[in-house]
Design a protein that fits this description.
27% helix; Arylsulfatase, C-terminal domain; 496 residues; Alkaline Phosphatase, subunit A; 4-stranded antiparallel beta sheet; 14 helices
Length: 496
C-alpha cells in the first residue's frame, strides 16, 4: 500500500440512463456539455465502454462488486444487489484508509439505506417509502416545496413524457447531489486522509423533468428525430416490444413527440453537466484538483425512440454503450481516445489500483489506466453483458469491432460490424463470410456462461443455446395512479 500522503483522492460521477453519444466533444453537434467536453479534453475518453447489464440495479451491482452478472446473480431490478459474502471495491477502500462517501442514487436492493462499504451515505432515490429514509426528502421539508408530491417528476403513465420539474433549480434533485458533493469536497480540504466520493445523479433517467429555465434549453425542431428504419418491428426484442404498451408508447408515435422527449432528455444531461462543472470548480478552489482522479460514466444508455423503442434493457448500442471519461490529476493522456472495449466492471479495479490497493482475485475487470497507457496489450479483448431471467434474457459479447447478441425470448442471433455499420442495420449472423466472427464471439460468451455456472441456458451436448417455450408476453398495463409511497405514509393521499 502506498503512503496515504501520496494516494490520490478519487471522484466517481455516475449518471443514470445516459447514452454514450450525449457528449458534444465526442461527436454530438446538438447537445451542450462544456464541462464533460473539458473532462474529455483533459483526460481519456473510452469510446467503446459497455454496461455489463443494461438495467439499473444489475449494472450498479456489477460496478460496485467488480463482477459480471454471472457472479453477482443480479439479473434484473427486482433481484438483490448481491449477497453479503463478498467485498465491494468501496469496502476495500474504507478498510484501506480512505474516507468514503456515497451521495445520491445507489439503488441497493432490497436494503436501500445500506452502506455496502461506504463510511457515510446521503441518500436520494426515485421512489422513497418514507421521508425518514431519504436525505433529499428531509432537505425539502425546510423548503417551500415540502408539499410537492412528484419531486422527481411524475412517474406512472407520464414517466417517459417530456416534463418540467415542479421545483426550482436550487432545490432540484440534480442540484442537491451537486451541492452535497461540493460540501464533501470542502469538508475534506486540508484533511489528512485521502477520500473517495461516489456522486450519483438520477438524471437523465426518466421522468425527464429538468428545472426552469433548463427545460427550454433545446427546441424540439432543432433536434434530429430517432432512427426509425422500415423494418424496425423485426429488430425489436419481443419482450421490449410488448413493453411499449406499458409506457404509453404504442406505435405509431409522432415524430414531434419523439423530438420533445429528446429535448427534455438533453436538458437533463446538460443540467448534470452544469453540476460537473461546479464540482470541478470546487476541487480547483480547494487545491484538490491535481490530486484527484475523476471518472465519469453511466449505468446504461437509453433508446430515446431509436428503432421505435424507449428506455433500456436491450443490447443495441444506444442502450448498452455508456460514456466513460477518466481524468488523471497530473494531466496525463489529455485528449486521448481509446476504442478498446471496456466495461463498468473495470472501474472498481481501476480505483483500487490508483489507491495502491489490491483488487480481489475474483474481480472481472482490468485497470483502465493500463488500457490507456498500452491499449495494444488488450487487442482482442471481449467484454460481456446480460440482462433478465434466462427465458427472456439478452446476451452480448463484443471485441469493439464486432458485436454478437442473442435473444432467448426470440431465439435469434445478431452479429454487427460496428465500424462499418454503426447503426446496426445489417445482421451478419447468417453471412458465411462472417462465420468465424460469429463463432468466436459466441464461443467467448459460452465460455463466460459456463465459467459462471450458468449451464441451464445452454443445451447439453454440443454447445448451443437452449430453446425456451414461446409464450404470449403481451399484457395489460400494470401502471397505476397510486401516489408516491412517502406521500401516502404522510397521510396526504390514499392509495387505490
Amino acid at each position: 500500500m502506498s503512503d496515504s500522503s501520496n494516494r490520490p483522492n478519487i471522484l466517481l460521477i455516475l449518471t443514470d440512463q445516459q447514452r454514450a453519444d450525449t457528449i458534444a466533444a465526442l461527436g454530438n453537434d446538438h447537445i451542450r456539455t462544456p464541462h464533460l467536453d473539458r473532462l474529455a479534453s483533459e483526460g481519456t475518453a473510452f469510446t467503446s465502454a459497455y454496461s455489463p447489464s443494461p438495467v439499473c440495479v444489475p449494472a450498479r451491482s456489477c460496478l460496485h462488486y467488480g463482477q459480471y452478472p454471472g457472479k453477482t446473480g443480479c439479473l434484473g431490478n427486482i433481484h438483490p444487489t448481491t449477497t453479503d459474502d463478498r467485498d465491494s471495491f468501496v469496502d476495500i477502500l474504507s478498510r484501506g484508509g480512505y474516507e468514503t462517501m456515497g451521495i445520491g442514487k445507489c439503488h441497493f436492493v432490497p436494503d436501500r439505506q445500506a452502506r455496502r462499504g461506504f463510511k457515510r451515505r446521503l441518500t436520494q432515490e426515485e421512489s422513497p417509502r418514507r421521508i425518514e429514509d431519504d436525505d433529499y426528502l428531509q432537505f425539502l421539508q425546510d423548503s417551500p416545496y415540502k408539499e410537492v408530491r412528484d419531486v422527481h417528476g411524475t412517474w406512472r403513465e407520464m414517466i417517459y413524457m417530456p416534463q418540467t420539474s415542479p421545483l426550482d433549480e436550487a432545490h432540484h434533485p440534480t442540484q442537491w447531489v451537486g451541492d452535497r458533493c461540493i460540501d464533501f469536497i470542502q469538508e475534506q480540504a486540508g484533511g489528512g486522509k485521502p477520500w473517495f466520493a461516489f456522486c450519483s445523479f438520477i438524471h437523465p433517467h426518466p421522468p425527464y423533468a429538468p428545472p426552469a429555465p433548463w427545460d427550454m434549453l433545446y427546441r424540439p425542431d432543432d433536434l434530429p428525430g430517432p432512427y426509425l428504419p422500415e423494418d424496425l418491428v423485426q429488430r425489436q426484442p419481443a419482450f421490449l416490444r410488448a413493453g411499449l404498451h406499458e409506457y404509453y408508447f404504442d406505435p405509431p408515435v409522432s415524430d414531434t413527440l419523439w423530438r420533445m422527449v429528446k429535448a427534455r432528455y438533453y436538458a437533463c444531461v446538460s443540467f448534470v453537466d452544469h453540476q460537473v462543472g461546479r464540482i470541478r470548480a470546487a476541487l480547483e478552489e480547494n487545491g484538490q484538483l491535481e490530486n484527484t482522479l475523476i471518472l465519469f460514466s453511466s449505468d446504461h444508455g437509453e433508446m430515446l425512440g431509436d428503432l421505435g423503442l424507449i428506455g433500456k434493457g436491450n443490447m443495441y448500442e444506444a442502450a448498452a454503450r455508456v460514456p466513460l471519461l477518466m481524468r488523471w490529476g497530473d494531466g496525463r493522456h489529455s485528449g486521448q481516445r481509446v476504442d478498446t472495449p471496456v466495461t463498468l466492471v473495470d472501474i472498481g479495479p481501476t480505483i483500487l489500483r490508483a489507491a495502491g490497493l489490491e483488487p480481489p482475485v475474483d474481480f472481472d475487470g482490468v485497470n483502465l489506466a493500463e488500457v490507456a497507457v498500452m491499449p495494444e496489450r488488450f487487442d482482442g479483448r471481449i467484454v460481456f453483458s446480460q440482462v433478465f431471467n434466462p427465458d427472456r434474457a439478452l446476451y452480448l459479447s463484443t471485441d469493439g469491432r464486432f458485436k454478437y447478441i442473442h435473444s432467448a425470448a426470440d431465439g435469434t442471433e445478431q452479429l454487427f460490424d460496428l465500424k462499418e455499420d454503426p447503426r446496426e442495420d445489417l445482421n451478419l449472423a447468417t453471412n458465411p463470410a462472417h462465420e468465424g466472427n460469429l463463432q468466436r464471439l459466441r464461443d467467448a460468451l459460452f465460455d463466460y456462461l459456463e465459467s459462471t455456472g450458468q449451464h441451464a441456458v445452454l443445451e447439453s451436448g454440443p454447445r448451443r443455446w437452449r430453446v425456451w417455450p414461446k409464450e404470449d408476453i403481451r399484457k395489460p398495463r400494470t401502471k397505476s395512479n397510486d401516489p408516491c409511497q412517502w406521500w401516502v405514509a404522510r397521510g396526504n393521499a390514499k392509495s387505490n
